[in-house]
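The instructor's notes for this session suggest beginning with a concrete chain rather than abstract definitions. Hand out the sequence below and ask the class to guess, before any prediction is shown, which regions might be ordered.
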Amino acid sequence: MTKGPKGRAAGLGVAILLVAVGVGLLATAGLVSGQPEPTVQIGSGQATVDGGTDVTPLEIVNLASGLVGAATIDVTYDPAIKTPTGCDTSASPFDTTLCNMAFDADTVRVTAISAAGVAGPTIPLADITWTAGSVCGSTPLDVGIVTFSDQTGAPITVLDGDGTNDVIGCPTPTVRIASGQANQGGTDVTRLEALDVDALCAITVEVTYLPSVKDATVCATDPSSLFDGEACNPDFASDTVRFSAISANGVSGATVPLADITWQAVGSAGASTPLTVSVVNYSDCAGAPIVPTPITQNGTNTIATPTATATATATTTTTVTTTATATKTTTATVTLTATATPVPGTETPLPPTGTATGTPVVTVTVTTTPPSTAVPATGTPKATPVAPPPTGGGGLSPLSHLSWTTALAAGAVLAWVLAAAGAFHTLRRRSR
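After discussion, reveal the predicted structure:
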């Protein structure tokens, strides 16, 4: 049976519809199956500050079908963080692969060509070596597709996969505030500072406190004049001081003074307030946060409590007793003179006139008792008593010296009397 024009037209429409559905199904087969798209990607890496190195591969992945005849790929980076120092293309299967590490100040360019085309799914292009500088941080490795075609020159749609590269090993920067103390109604000054600073171009810090205890009255900025511009508002809020500073070329140093804050003690004695530090911004000259993120160290500020002071005085009294005993020496001189008168009529010679002299000797003894040992100042000082002179048969008292003197004198008088009596007796006998 022959169909008419209307029947043939209807059949043609159905056929076109079926073809369209089939094409659509084929086009979406890849998506339905979850097969990834072809991608040019670079790996990520990290290296230690001041000369550390790492290698990131640049490659084509997920090329399920077709051939790659030519590709030109750019990789851009931050030269302040990393520098390309090597580019190895020996693993590339292309006829020619060139790597220009100095294509631009921040760009590495890789170009690959194959006359017959290179099949996937993974095709290596280059291994790029990166060397870390003296600044810690992270740089993106941004892949840019310049050209990507098959062996006939027809473009191939491909995605780009970026990476990152970090510099690690730097000291963690610190922002801190010192603690302080003042008497009730007095003032004190505490310093806000940053430690282990490296290429800091912008910083904003806030310090919060208890306004019932202390009040921030003055904020002197940048004591060492390191920044290009700075500002500090002690009244940013009723309980907050805010400091900000910028530098065009970056500030570095082990210790970077930020501000000196003067505090007025308004609370009662013994009260204390924490000084809490918060870092709002800490970035490099590109505006990127510096890695690693700085840590903070808080302080405290107190109002002193008066204390009583006691003074002790020690008095030392020393008594020294000296005892001296003196014995008087007495010298007695006795002169004896005998005179004979001749009797008339006799020629008996007279005995010569004689003089008898006697000098008794008396020993004088002086005894001094040495000073007593001083008693330490603790307690009542006492002196060691002096023993009295011995008495009795074993020795002589001080008065015994006078008795000896008297005895000697009496002996001298007795000797004189005896001599006189003897002379008188002799004269009388001769006169007979």
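Then share the key points. Residues 16 and 22 are 10 Å apart (CA to CA). The helical segments are 5-27, 29-33, 398-431.
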